[in-house]
């Protein structure tokens, strides 16, 4: 398939909640191929379908030399323990801000055969799972920032647009 262009703010597709995948057809198979090929680049930890302009609930990840995908993901478990650290986003290029996330996350979805797929992890993997599920709900990591930091981030974002 192809490495796809990343949509960036203020593209409205990034703020639109994605639709459930109800049929696994050639379009969905092609989407997964594109997601996996597009995320397979240094510095890319995850990629949601809407970041390449497709309004379907699917994302890929590239964490610790593991590349994968999940369809119709839902977060089913988050740890009470949290992690702090700078977070960035391919759709908000060049901006990194401290973003609190759960240390552990578990996502349930399905694979291309319609089988249940469970994806879980700690640290960067947990951050990626939460970040990509947020994308599919039309939420950007900027929305999760502390109020003062968010004001600074939005100011910097406006200056870049």
Automatic annotation (TrEMBL):
<feature type="binding site">
    <location>
        <position position="131"/>
    </location>
    <ligand>
        <name>Fe cation</name>
    </ligand>
</feature>
<keyword id="KW-0378">Hydrolase</keyword>
<comment type="similarity">
    <text>Belongs to the polypeptide deformylase family.</text>
</comment>
<keyword id="KW-0479">Metal-binding</keyword>
<dbReference type="GO" id="GO:0006412">
    <property type="term" value="P:translation"/>
</dbReference>
<comment type="function">
    <text>Removes the formyl group from the N-terminal Met of newly synthesized proteins. Requires at least a dipeptide for an efficient rate of reaction. N-terminal L-methionine is a prerequisite for activity but the enzyme has broad specificity at other positions.</text>
</comment>
<keyword id="KW-0408">Iron</keyword>
<dbReference type="GO" id="GO:0046872">
    <property type="term" value="F:metal ion binding"/>
</dbReference>
<feature type="binding site">
    <location>
        <position position="89"/>
    </location>
    <ligand>
        <name>Fe cation</name>
    </ligand>
</feature>
<feature type="binding site">
    <location>
        <position position="135"/>
    </location>
    <ligand>
        <name>Fe cation</name>
    </ligand>
</feature>
<dbReference type="InterPro" id="IPR036821">
    <property type="entry name" value="Peptide_deformylase_sf"/>
</dbReference>
<dbReference type="InterPro" id="IPR023635">
    <property type="entry name" value="Peptide_deformylase"/>
</dbReference>
<feature type="active site">
    <location>
        <position position="132"/>
    </location>
</feature>
<keyword id="KW-0648">Protein biosynthesis</keyword>
<dbReference type="Pfam" id="PF01327">
    <property type="entry name" value="Pep_deformylase"/>
</dbReference>
<dbReference type="GO" id="GO:0042586">
    <property type="term" value="F:peptide deformylase activity"/>
</dbReference>
<protein>
    <recommendedName>
        <fullName>Peptide deformylase</fullName>
        <ecNumber>3.5.1.88</ecNumber>
    </recommendedName>
</protein>
